[in-house]
Design the sequence.
C-alpha cells in the first residue's frame, strides 16, 4: 500500500468516525462536505461503493399507511439436541397501518424477559421475508448488532425494552411509509430481539452485506435515533465476521481482511 493510499484510508476513517460521533454540535453533512475529494477517499475502501456520498441520517416520513406489510415472529426451541430452526419459528400477527401497529404494540412489549428463559428471538420483518438466513431475501445479507450484557435488574430490562421498541418504531418510519424516496430504505429486512444467557442482543437485518456504504448509513441512523451508547457491529450472515465495529468511544474499525 502506498503512502498516499494509507493517508486516504486514514482520512476516510476520520470522516466516517465523525458521522457516528456526537461530541460536536456540527452536523454530519457539514463535516462530510469539508472533504471536497471525499469520493476519491472513500474509494480507498474496496468495500465502499463508487459514486455515493455520506450524508445526513435517513429521513422518516409520518403517514398512516405503509407500503409494506410487516409480520411479528417469535422463535424458541423446545429441544436443543435436534434443532431445526424453522420448526420453532412462529408468525404471531401482521400489520400494514399505524393503527394496526399500535394494536400490536402490546404484543411487542407485553412479554416479561424473565419468563422467556435464555434462548428466545422476537422478530419484526417485512411480509414475505422469514427471519432466517436461508430466506432468499437474507442470503447475501448481514446485520447490525447492538449488545446488552445481561444483568439481573430492572434497569437492564427497562433499557433493553426501551431501545427495542424505539428501534422498531424507527425502522417502520424509515422503511414502511409512503412518500420516502431514499434508496436505502429497501435494504432493511427486519429486526430481531435476541434473549440469551450472557448477552442480550438487538439486530437489524439488511439485504446486502457487501453494500458497506448503505449499511454505514443505516447504522448511523440507528445509533443516532436510539441513543444507544454500547458496542454495535455489522456482521455477515454467512461468515459471521464483524466487518464494521463501532465501540463505546464511537470509533469505527473496518475488518479489511474479512471475506466479502
Sequence:
Amino acid at each position: 500500500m502506498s503512502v498516499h493510499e494509507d493517508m486516504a484510508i486514514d482520512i476516510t476513517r476520520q470522516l466516517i468516525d465523525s458521522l457516528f460521533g456526537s461530541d460536536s454540535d456540527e452536523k454530519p453533512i457539514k463535516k462530510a462536505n469539508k472533504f471536497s475529494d471525499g469520493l476519491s477517499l472513500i474509494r480507498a475502501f474496496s468495500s465502499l461503493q463508487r459514486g455515493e456520498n455520506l450524508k445526513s441520517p435517513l429521513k422518516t416520513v409520518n403517514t398512516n399507511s405503509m407500503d409494506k406489510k410487516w409480520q411479528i415472529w417469535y422463535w424458541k426451541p423446545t429441544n436443543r439436541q435436534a434443532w431445526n430452526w424453522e420448526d420453532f419459528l412462529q408468525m404471531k400477527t401482521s400489520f400494514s397501518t399505524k393503527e394496526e401497529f399500535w394494536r400490536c404494540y402490546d404484543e411487542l412489549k407485553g412479554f416479561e424477559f424473565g419468563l422467556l428463559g435464555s434462548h428466545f428471538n422476537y422478530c419484526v420483518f417485512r411480509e414475505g421475508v422469514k427471519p432466517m438466513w436461508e430466506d432468499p431475501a437474507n442470503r447475501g445479507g448481514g446485520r447490525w448488532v447492538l449488545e446488552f450484557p445481561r444483568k439481573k435488574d430492572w434497569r437492564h430490562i427497562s433499557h433493553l425494552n426501551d431501545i427495542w421498541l424505539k428501534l422498531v418504531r424507527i425502522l417502520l418510519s424509515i422503511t414502511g411509509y409512503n412518500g420516502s424516496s431514499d434508496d436505502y430504505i429497501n435494504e432493511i429486512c427486519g429486526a430481531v430481539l435476541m434473549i440469551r444467557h450472557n448477552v442480550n442482543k438487538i439486530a437489524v437485518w439488511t439485504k446486502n452485506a457487501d453494500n458497506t456504504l448503505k449499511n454505514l448509513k443505516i447504522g448511523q441512523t440507528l445509533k443516532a435515533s436510539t441513543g444507544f451508547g454500547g458496542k454495535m457491529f455489522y456482521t455477515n450472515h454467512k461468515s459471521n465476521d464483524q466487518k464494521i465495529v463501532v465501540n463505546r468511544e464511537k470509533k469505527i474499525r473496518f475488518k479489511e481482511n474479512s471475506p466479502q
About this structure: The beta strands are 65-75, 89-97, 119-126, 142-149, 188-196, 199-206, 232-236, 242-246, 252-254.
